[in-house]
Write a structure and sequence with these properties.
The protein is an alpha+beta fold. The chain has helices at about 10-30, 40-50, 120-140, 145-160; strands spanning about 55, 70-75, 75-80, 95-100, 105-115, 165, 170, 180-185, 200-205, 205-210, 215, 225, 230-235, 235-240, 245-250. The strands form five sheets. Strands 1, 2, 4 and 5 form a four-stranded antiparallel beta sheet that branches.
Amino acid sequence: MTVSIKSSDEIEKMRIAGRLAAQVLEMIGEHIKAGISTGELDRICHDYIVNEQQAIPAPLNYRGFPKSICTSVNHVVCHGIPADNKILKSGDIVNIDITVIKDGYHGDTSKMFFVGKPLGHAERLAQVTQECMYKGIQMVKPGVKLGDIGHVIQTHAEDNHYSVVQEYCGHGIGAVFHEDPQVLHYGRANTGLELKAGMTFTIEPMINAGKRHVKLLTRDGWTVETKDKRLSAQWEHTILVTETGYEIFTLRDEERGKFGNPA
């Protein structure tokens, strides 16, 4: 495994790309309401990234993916393909996953949105999943091992009677969309790769309301669903390991103060 340590110039480019990705999520929120299609959400995000940000939507044509964002609704775990015939309805939950490329570097982030008033159990799943991500991020500093991150995420999920998807994980990121290391959201403490300053990767737990098992839909080769059709939630940030802790490149304004980068 070759894990790249980013230079100060690379870190600054990733900081910019991360901020742009966060801005897309900040922009799209007002459009997420009953009656809109995920295909329309894709077009809005695509136009914003290309025309307003002068950036590139990384998913588009990545290994054949046909759209500019991922929209994963209800029991879709990840990689949901936006479509004009997929109409959001009140009570739905949807993960919007954004990756932008700016000056050759990637910023990757996702957020859960509610369509109308969320059902209590759906809101709780989304909240606990976000807590899982934050707990994983707060572990990040030089000397910590990847297993420590996975362990704290898995423990919090299972303490709340949820399960962690094991087939998909976080990943190193930079000039390459997906690079080493793989960042598992489960595991044993004090195992795995030791973190060093300058590493950049995503933490993006996928947490299921029911069992952890998932299936990849053969009809499109991308969409991943829970086998038991129970709800799934996911949140994602792109992280830098600093000399003393971490920096979140994709932090949104709504998170500042509530959860921010350490001083």
